[in-house]
Amino acid sequence: MPQHPFVPVIPAGGAGTRLWPLSRRSRPKFLLDLTGEGRSLLQSTVERLAPLADRPPIVVTGAAHEAAVREQVGGSGAVQVVAEPSPRNSMPAIALAAALVERDHPEAIIGSFAADHLIDDPEAFARAVAIARDAAERGYLVTLGVAPTHPATGFGYIEQGAAEGRDAVADEHVARAAGPGALPPGAHPVTRFVEKPDRERAEQFLSTGRFLWNAGMFVVRASLLLDELAAQIPSLAAGAREIAAALGTRQHQEVLERVWPRLTAIAIDHALAEPLAADGKVAVVPASFGWDDVGDFAALAQQLREHPVRPGGEGDGAAPREGDEGDTDDGEGGDVRVLGRATVDAVSSRATVYGSTDRHIALVGLDGISIVDTEDVLLVLADEQAQDLSVLVARLERRGLGRLR
Amino acid sequence: MPQHPFVPVIPAGGAGTRLWPLSRRSRPKFLLDLTGEGRSLLQSTVERLAPLADRPPIVVTGAAHEAAVREQVGGSGAVQVVAEPSPRNSMPAIALAAALVERDHPEAIIGSFAADHLIDDPEAFARAVAIARDAAERGYLVTLGVAPTHPATGFGYIEQGAAEGRDAVADEHVARAAGPGALPPGAHPVTRFVEKPDRERAEQFLSTGRFLWNAGMFVVRASLLLDELAAQIPSLAAGAREIAAALGTRQHQEVLERVWPRLTAIAIDHALAEPLAADGKVAVVPASFGWDDVGDFAALAQQLREHPVRPGGEGDGAAPREGDEGDTDDGEGGDVRVLGRATVDAVSSRATVYGSTDRHIALVGLDGISIVDTEDVLLVLADEQAQDLSVLVARLERRGLGRLR
């Protein structure tokens, strides 16, 4: 297949409320060095994608974070930063990036990857992207599907239409039904996308062997994305193209401010992936590259436990390390991970501590607890109930504590 | 019986390391308003004893805390404050107070009560003290024994020699054996003192109905205490009397500095109570007046749960209150007690929070956790392992963190 330019798109949004008060509105998750590897999740994402890119990656972020994003990754034209005037969910952001790419290279392939996920094996990731590019060249909307390691209820799932070895048959079926070309090895047709299931359903999914986690990664020809979007939500595709056309002209700001607020606020899954899957136009590349969306403190605690010391170190002094367990010959055991500059002393505790103050932190008898110690907020959370943090964050505003978000 | 003057003695010492970092070396437990009733444990102790006293209570405290003690309870001669040059355990402190009382009133009765315990029912306490005074007038070393409510392993126990109704027989036995007079109703001979038992033994104790908690409360004629002490540890009794004799003279400081450091550092239980019990010279008044030594965070959490709002209020803004559980109609449940000025927001949490900073404290999914939030130390502790805190405090010094004690 001919290879057209590949341009990564990085939507950098999302509040990360389940990591509050580590992540704040003013300093969202993607700007944080959550793993202590010395760079933020956004920086890691850019570093992972840059070697695969034929043009500088496009980071689409909120106007409020434009400066911080430029400071972290904007050096010497390494990335193109596009600021959204207001958050409109993922589809407008990706459509705008696609329109910018399409303007210069109508046949270019874009790959959209969240700015705040972790990937342990960049080489496996690069291999999956290469297959996805190939499938995208053949006219598919391609998603990278993560091989599930447990019946997670926090992710959506992707159902593959055909198992390995039945590609030819499936491809024929797909080709008859929808028009795109035959799928390359390693890519499979997608039957459907499924929203976050409950536990029982997630277990059923895993038992079939056909389901993958939806990590929100899409690879597709820029013009195809916009043309298909035009068929689904015409005003959204037209609006994105209108803004892109005005970029670099004197009208740009005026067009942006007029058009952007009217773009339908919708996720790419609902706007494109689900309807196109029903039409047989979506492919998935199943892969295992140690993906994690680090969605809450339970996930982060597990990350820090599995990767006690990541390469890179330093950063803003946030290298994770084992807590000072004191006289280990006391047989006190425990397993405390520390991110940040706090000094921690623990007895018989399994805990994760994020300390951004100079205070001494003492722990006794904790089991599966996360602690975030900041200047204005202290959070103490049982990892088992990490999802419930959103309840707390949601009501800050109502209580006149919006400044803490 | 003739009633001689009653003088309360309040040894105010003890680091309270199991309540660190709420209690510090510079601000020990007895100086704290742990229950939010608007006064410190020491102030409550003085208020409880003042109505029973015929002379101002004597507070014996460390030189380092003399000023703070005077500030809290020293107003207008309400108490006499005596400063120990160095801590020598309870016997020297009580002996010195006894010698001071004896100097003016040889027949006076002293009652020694710790400065940092809680008593819920002061009237029941007063009734028990009245009986104890009566028995002390008859020549006994009298202790108040707390009727146990559970097989505690954190307290010593007192075994009564005779159950109610057998006093006459027992009294005769005691009288034959040891010399003091017949015991008044409500007082019983003591067979022995027992050190903190293990769980199994504590349960045996309770099943007999003869054992009481040793709350360290002693009522005795001042001169009898010193005479008996002179028989056990002559130098200690003589030293206490020498220092008392010098008080108010020009030699006092010289005598104190010369004699005090040589006094045997020993607890009154070992120095007097145990040997005299063997001689039949100790009586006990069993009583139930809601006693608690608030020995650790588990005990304190229980106190705050049982007494959510104590009378008095205000104080230094430390009134315990129910944490802001937010929308209780969310059915989130939880039970959070707050001492101090922290704002707390919780989801599904059973916890106790001591907040002395202005930070917002958020809790998710905690069960039986105590949190102490201070400027320089943050403690997060599982109440079940509250006793293990001492391990942590003990090693602060070794780690160069002695300033935090």
**Biggest sheet of chain A, in brief?**
5 strands, mixed, barrel
- Report the top-level CATH class of the largest domain in chain A: Alpha Beta
What is the number of E strands of chain A? 18
3D shape of chain A: globular
Largest inter-chain contact set? A-B, 45 and 45 residues
Largest sheet of chain A, order of strands side by side? 6-9-7-8-10
Quaternary organisation of the protein chains:
homodimer
Number of domains of chain A: 2
What does this structure look like?
The structure is a homodimer of 405-residue chains. Chain A is α/β, with parallel strands linked by helices and 405 residues long. Helices cover 32% and strands 24% of the residues of chain A. The first copy, chain A, is built from 12 helices and 18 strands. In chain A, the strands form 4 sheets. Chain A has a 5-stranded mixed barrel, surrounded by 5 helices. Chain A has a 5-stranded mixed sheet with strand order 12-13-15-17-18, covered by helices on one side. The longest helix of chain A is centred in the N-terminal third of the chain and has 16 residues, at 122-137. The N and C termini of chain A lie far apart (49 Å). Strand 18 (377-382) of chain A pairs parallel with strand 16 (360-364) of chain B.
